[in-house]
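#structure-requests
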Amino acid sequence: MTRDLSATQFQATVGLSMYTLGFGVVPLVTASFSEEFGRRPLYLVSGLGFAIFYVMIAEAKNVQTVMVARLIQGSFGSTAATMVGGTIADIWAPAERGLPMAIFSLSALCGNGYGPLIAGWIEMNSRLGWRWIQWIQLIIFAVTLLLVFIFLEETRSTVLLMRIAKKLREETGRSYKARIEDESVSLKHLIWISCTRPIRLLLTEHVVLSFSLWIGFAWGVTYCMIQSIGMVFRTLHDFNDGQVGLVFISMLVGSFIGFCSNFYQEYLYKMYYPTRGPEARLYCACVAAFFLPIAMFIYAWCSFSHVHWIGLVVGITLFVAAMFVVYLAVFSYLADCYGPYASSALAGQSLARNIMATVFPLFTTQMYTNLTFKWANTLFGFLALAMIPIPFVLFFYGPSIRQRSKFSRRVLEAQQKASLEKM
């Protein structure tokens, strides 16, 4: 792409970052649309827009077109990605969400692995090249969108109740109403809440802020790692584009290791939830906190041409496995802690996470050039080391921290009230 569009390396990197910028910012506006129109229409409309911009990138004549298309495509793609958590919450009760959320997390993180794996070999084919990476993705996504259109039904309970009430009014002539119709507010007000509440939670809630910093850092390093893999393996081990793509299998393996650990985490959650509450979600996250810096140190100090490349692969695999555990813990813990405000809390951490993913790749090349591979990754390792206390503080002091929070205290009081009523 840099060759065909006469672009600089930095311009190409901006194209990578623009996607995550759209992913982070736009859901603040679009999240409220599902309250008004339901989830299924948003999946379909955003999916159609997402598909269209593959064409724009594939036919681009300059790198500026690619940047704009990536930003808008990320914006469309973000709608579906941020609604998955809501759809899961529509279908499963809190105690049953562990496996569905783990499957969603697996698909999200595996994409970072199998995308470059496939794209590397497409790029190696002289008859295809980078433009066909876009066309092939478009074909795959078009099939997916067709399956969504055929099989996905509406899951948003308020929208379903309004449809039932409307149908009853038409059939009986009586003034049936869903409760939400009396309590409904304007779309403008919903958009205002969805834009402001996530930022408010991010800035004022200690739980949201600390977890957002942790997952944001790890997510930013993940994108730096994605960008650095090509540089490291080409420079140190003379890998071609196809072989570099094969390295990304380690991300698939790491994701599956993290996914398998979730079964043990679910076992611990069910065992200790009666005594520990939402903090029972954090057992594996406390272990993963140690593996993040360990993985970065391995990746850093295997960055020598005389060290076998398998050492680098081990570091990547461990990092992604730990990243998976942290990613899943953040989603599950915030959902448990904030109940009806969970979507806002998750939107806040998503904003922080994707802004980090936007910013980090912009300085990756310069950082690796100036600090060398080993010292740049060592710096990341020390930063990850400094963040180890985050899950432990929440694990031991989470209830008292939440008790001082305006939002999570309401959820805590509602849970205590429900427990007393059952007694």
